[in-house]
Amino acid sequence: MDTLTVDLGSRAYKIYIGSGLLDNPKGLPFDLCLSAKNMLISNPTVFNLYGERVLSFLRHLDIHCDTILIPDGELYKDLTWIEHILTAMLRCGLDRKSMLFALGGGVIGDITGFAASIYMRGIPFVQIPTTLLAQVDSSVGGKTGVNHSLGKNMIGTFHQPCAVIIDTDTLLSLPEREYRCGIAEVIKYGIISDARFFNYLENKRQDISERKPACLREIIRTSCSIKAQVVALDEKEVGLRAILNYGHTIGHAIETETDYSVYKHGEAVAIGMALEAQLARRIGVLPEDEAVRISALIEAYGLPASLPGGMDVERLLNHMRLDKKTESGKITVITPLSVGEVKITKAVALEDIRAVLKNNK
Ligand code: NAD
Ligand code: GLY
């Protein structure tokens, strides 16, 4: 098992990464459970695969835990389900020391973290992520929340988990398309901060695509380690943490424009990363061959790297103006300087973004 620390002083926590952790939880921090009443939150898809394993080891450790299942899907990441969860927690008698366990992908993690952050003004929770995207991104860093009809992830809090338990074996049941979406975020870490890791992703593509255990552990450990370092330096995204948003300015605009029904998040981010690299090349901060290398790796993993035909560029630009990084109407984009290094570029000229979007359909 690999153990990493997210160094946030009194709120520091550990990320445990290994194969078979749900079958053999020896060494995991269940001494953190201080109440007789706790709650596991999951969805039927994940619970049927892994729920009984988690409940059984909790029982074995004499930790009482009720369960709430939320229907599977982003559609249910909303305040209505938060209300249901809080009601169930009150009915079950959870107290201020009760622990929530989030078993699932990013949807379950975000909902559970948000419920934990507001129940009785905040109780602890443990992340047990089961998608690659959740294991390398959403379970670490304490961003929690739900969607509003007027915008995705618009209601939320920063509330750090007290542990993240990553059993890499859970990825073996993950559908191929979901796996590739996680790979998009993994590639992101190579581009924003680690050229050696980017090389590794180029060289080990076959083994990574086949989900070889040693590769899974390596890509998750490296990704979490980069995320942990960034979060430790800038927990509330005052500055640096925005680099984790590479590919997301254009990616979010694509998701919004296609009503979240054409592309999954990782796919939209993949297109966004390729186009933001081209933008960096256009404004003269990234060499042409590096932009080509970025697009080539994205495509090599079966992810899209260009806009589909028929996209309305002006509408995409309007969505980008509503991005959370926009300041005084000026669009901010994370632009690579080389593979392994990015810069937060504020007030990018609309003509440059427009030209890149128009040339890439
Ligand atoms: P998801 O949670 O919807 O999971 C994707 C699908 O995989 C679901 O159908 C789920 O039931 C299924 N699944 C999960 N684990 C499985 C397994 N081991 N085997 C088989 N099927 C499995 O999607 P996601 O991509 O994990 O997360 C997306 C969400 O994460 C979005 O809501 C996004 O906003 C959020 N997010 C949050 C952060 C953050 O920092 N908090 C960062 C990135 C994304
Ligand atoms: N997923 C981006 C962040 O956690 O900041």
Fold and architecture overview:
- By secondary structure, the chain is of the alpha/beta class.
- Helix content is 45%, strand content 17%.
- It is built from 13 helices and eleven strands.
- The strands form three sheets. It has a seven-stranded mixed sheet. The chain has a two-stranded antiparallel ribbon with strand order 7-8. Strands 10-11 form a two-stranded antiparallel ribbon.
- Strand 7 and strand 8 (151-158) form a beta hairpin.
- Helix 5 packs parallel to helix 10 (265-282).
- The radius of gyration is 20 Å and the shape is globular.
- Residues 137, 141, 143, 241, 244 line the site of glycine.
Q: Mean of the pLDDT scores?
A: 95
Helices, by number, come to 13
Give the strand order, joined by hyphens, for the main sheet: 1-2-9-6-5-3-4
Shape: globular
Distance between the termini: 44 Å
Largest sheet: 7 strands, mixed
